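Backbones bend. Shown next:

***
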Amino acid sequence: MVPAEILKKVKRIEIGMRHLVNTVFAGEYHSVFKGRGMAFSEVRDYQAGDDIRTIDWNVTARMGEPFVKVFEEERELTVILMVDASASGDFGTVEQMKGEVGVEICALLAFSAIQNNDRVGLIIFTDEVEAFIPPKKGKKHVLRVIREMLYFRPKRSGTDLGKALEYLNRVTTRRSVVFLVSDFMDTHFEAPLRVANRRHDLVGIALQDPREMALPDIGIVELEDAETGEGILVDFADSEVRDLFAREAKRRREDRESMFRSIGMDTVEINAGKSYVDPLMQFFRIRARRIRT
């Protein structure tokens, strides 16, 4: 049985996300993520200005006057939310931990999807795939997806993006819009990422906390790797230590961004200390302009 606290969180998220979808995100999602193609809808009388290539010659011959075929976009999409539940997501030095921010972003994307009558599925992974909810339509299904993300407690702590992407490609046979929500603290996943990006419309949602880019000057601190449990004492008061940490963090970020660019994969950088609405809106607008051109 789902605890009352989780149900309250689901309701709170539903109210907040529906407001965002109906106001800020109205039309943005639809304009960016297109359907699978054009499907025949009906025939109608030819009108001045119609493309002659759409004339239905069989109906025209039978009726004795010109008729044209009308096509409509096949709007229905399959949206897969791939959520990294490894222990590094349980890190936060601001109001929310990275994992909590990721759940809210997924909820926003899920409600945007069902407003457009799209199907939504969920994959939760660590260094194993720990949960899979097949794609379906409807508000009831999306609320189940959100409950699963909030209620989920991973069995493992590590990260294996490659294994999760290989699983995606096995269980998802049709081309889908895939949001990969992770801090990408892993290595050796470029090859399966390339495959997934070719098969699907893959969008990376890269989460980070401000303290993962720069250390504060607060003296000696004991740090523990959330995924391995290994601990180390670090003197944050040492400027050389802080500079080295910042350089390494910048290098990792640049290497990741370079890999994404080489693959041709869209990404959105989300800082847990700031609103995620602005970078998502910027992504939608840039992508919409790219599609139009």
Notes: The mean pLDDT is 86. The beta strands are 37-45, 67-74, 78-84, 119-125, 129-136, 177-182, 201-208, 220-224, 231-235, 266-271.
